[in-house]
Amino acid sequence: MTTVRVDITVSLDGFVAGPNQTLEHPLGENGERLHEWAFAAESWRERHGLSGGEANVDSDVLRASQDATGAVVMGRRMFSGGEGPWADDPNANGWWGDDPPFHVPVFVVTQHARDTVTMQGGTSFAFVTDGVGRAIAQAREDAGEKDVLVAGGASVVQQALRAGLLDELQLHVVPLLLGGGVRLFGPLGPVVDLEVTRVIESPAVAHLRYRVQRGQVTSSG
Amino acid sequence: MTTVRVDITVSLDGFVAGPNQTLEHPLGENGERLHEWAFAAESWRERHGLSGGEANVDSDVLRASQDATGAVVMGRRMFSGGEGPWADDPNANGWWGDDPPFHVPVFVVTQHARDTVTMQGGTSFAFVTDGVGRAIAQAREDAGEKDVLVAGGASVVQQALRAGLLDELQLHVVPLLLGGGVRLFGPLGPVVDLEVTRVIESPAVAHLRYRVQRGQVTSSG
């Protein structure tokens, strides 16, 4: 049974990127600091073809998430990298290099129809022009028994939440107040009830995992 | 050595109150749900002169916080209760009843000068018209060796953060996405670095405690 899961790193004040995103700093000011815990992890480095790194609890959490993932859904900007002029180049292959770190099919929610691109190492990028729901449905088909990972950005996560398409949220909460930038969470329709399924802490990050509760739409008041 | 500590309950999407606050619902739509974990706790009930409740880890966390607190700082609306017409009555004694649950001196940050009010059970309300910094300084004098608790609302917490007046943050993160309302965190000057000092979980809430790092102002980029 495929689980549709958001797995995303966020500052304690709720930002997935810092303020003033530019071509040089697609994650905004200090946004890279959100991902230092991952950059340091052995499992992240392996995934990116690098040696070394720390074999710690953060690395284990990341490895488990990677191993459970059968397909990925992401937004156009996460695919193409920020807000630079090449972000709108419909032929650009993103900022992920020739051997992207996904190693599974990736479904990009975009306005620009184009053919699927097959990269090295098992990653492909398919482009879905009829919304996040359709992207998740296609990803389900490719994921087999594994999870569909909704990787971001915030806009895709919010659309999936509002549409009731998520089963699980895993937030990696970094002990940092960015004070501005791109917020993970925005307006919803009804309140969404969650169930805590796991909390793992390290000095670098708190890994909070939740299951989205179905059929518990709460009335106002 | 007095610690100045924020101790506040927040939804996973960062709200301390729901949308559409009214006199009937000063915590906004579904805002009361943020505090169900506390209402159920034995220590909270004791504090409010009630019997019963659960003697669980949430109750222990709350009791430890209460026992460590020597004085409280809060904003005018937290004192007077929401946005109703009586919220602006400069003579109203708040919505906390004759025997408020603080049992220590409380310093209310307000525009309205008035004399200190002494309530039953050890609570007094003093009104500080020259800002949150002065309120915290006065609270320090009364706290002795115990902590100053900055109880909210969000505006007072944000002012104290921006002024660099906080030593510790404890967030009680409730597994709920409110989707709107009053956000705990807003714009900051420089990024604020935190150190995780404790994570305690229960089915109802994740208690995340952080120490604010001093002298680590991070440059942009």
User: Which runs of chain A of at least 5 residues are low in confidence (pLDDT < 50)?
Assistant: 216-221
Counted by DSSP, the helix tally of chain A is 6
- CATH top level of chain A is Alpha Beta
Q: What fold name stands as the CATH topology of chain A?
A: Dihydrofolate Reductase, subunit A
Helix fraction bin of chain A = 10-25%
Strand order of the largest sheet of chain A: 5-6-4-3-7-1-8-12-11
Report on this model:
The structure is a homodimer of 221-residue chains. With 221 residues, the first copy, chain A, is an alpha/beta fold. Chain A has one domain (4-212): Dihydrofolate Reductase, subunit A. Chain A has 6 helices and 12 strands. Chain A has helices spanning 36-39, 42-47, 57-68, 76-80, 132-143, 154-162, and strands at 4-11, 15-17, 69-75, 105-109, 117-118, 124-128, 147-152, 168-174, 176-177, 182-183, 192-201, 206-212. In chain A, the strands form 2 sheets. Chain A has a 9-stranded mixed beta sheet with strand order 5-6-4-3-7-1-8-12-11, with helices on both faces. In chain A, a hairpin with a 4-residue loop joins strand 11 (192-201) and strand 12 (206-212). The first copy, chain A, is globular, with a radius of gyration of 17 Å. The first copy, chain A, starts with a strand and ends in a 9-residue tail after the last strand. Chain A binds chain B through residues 12-14, 18, 20, 25, 29-30, 33, 161, 169, 171, 173, 175-180, 183-196, 199, 201-203, 206, 208, 210, 218, 220-221, and chain B through 12-14, 18, 20, 25, 29-30, 33, 161, 169, 171, 173, 175-180, 183-196, 199, 201-203, 206, 208, 210, 218, 220-221.
